[in-house]
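2024-03-11 09:14:02 DEBUG pipeline.ingest accepted 1 chain
2024-03-11 09:14:02 DEBUG pipeline.ingest length=332
2024-03-11 09:14:03 DEBUG pipeline.predict start
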Amino acid sequence: ISTRDWSSDVCSSDLHVHASPLKLDQQLQKSHELVFSLRFDEANAMLNAQSQQNVLVSAQRVEIAFLKTYMNERQDDYDLFMSASEALIKQLKNDLSKNTDPFNGFLTARTLLYQTIIEIKFHHHINAAWTLRSAYLTIEKNKQRFPGFLPNYMVSGALQCMIGAVPSNYEWLLSLAGVHGSISQGRNELVRLLSLLPYSNFACYTDDVLFMLASLQSSLFPDWTAPAVFEKAISNRAASSGLLLYAYTSLLMKQSRNDDALILLNQWSISKQEYPFYFLYYRRGLARLRKLDFTAENDFKIFFNIVSRSEEHTSELQSRVDISYAVFCLKK
């Protein structure tokens, strides 16, 4: 795989939306921004007013299902997401423009990436491995066909990081599967993309890149010193997006910047317009507990009382519920 600077392939015309049956018009750009601001009701209202023949409408509904599953870690959300994402992949496969439209390959690969993330979260590791390979092969093919199509590199960069994190003694398996990548190459793609998006008609994908880069850094390379373009963008957006607040404060706490995380978390409150992200109570509780601030009890109690009502969720979520219960019980 060439490691040259792919951004040299992007001429001024490539910074704008290709003529496409899957049209990313201004309304869909706005609804996409609403999705990643967790304002799902408003986004759905806008999507209902769009032509249902545009696959981008279905893709944004899958985005909502993905984020709900990612945030809640519940089996019923998982089932709904997998069903919706498989239907979208089938719809894209049957689309007449699949060989000429850059959105088709991008949306297919991104949906497969979402499936990979969710399968990992639910410990379906064999499924995750096969889905990751499919996502990789799909996006590499789309990059060859449409090298200047910016959204490609959002998926490609994330996959490169995930592949690069595989332990060295398993790299031979990746080679057999025709999959190659490195963390440095992936994060460089994401950072370059972040610097280009504001000057394109794909600026609505900025939050996607911030979320992906912060989540990957927190999990895979927390000690990496991120460039100013990333730090500035995510710190600004974290103040108004619960999703990015969670991703960014998770990263800050991994970097032993608990005070910085707590400042942001203390400014947060659930908005009536946002889909509730109850993990933020857990995150704030941990940040307060690290300061020996036992008002953390209130956050853990809210998190426990709400999340424990769900009978089916992942083991990680169950461990957080158990920790929350134990902490606020200490006060009794």
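2024-03-11 09:14:41 DEBUG pipeline.report The mean pLDDT is 86.
2024-03-11 09:14:41 DEBUG pipeline.predict end
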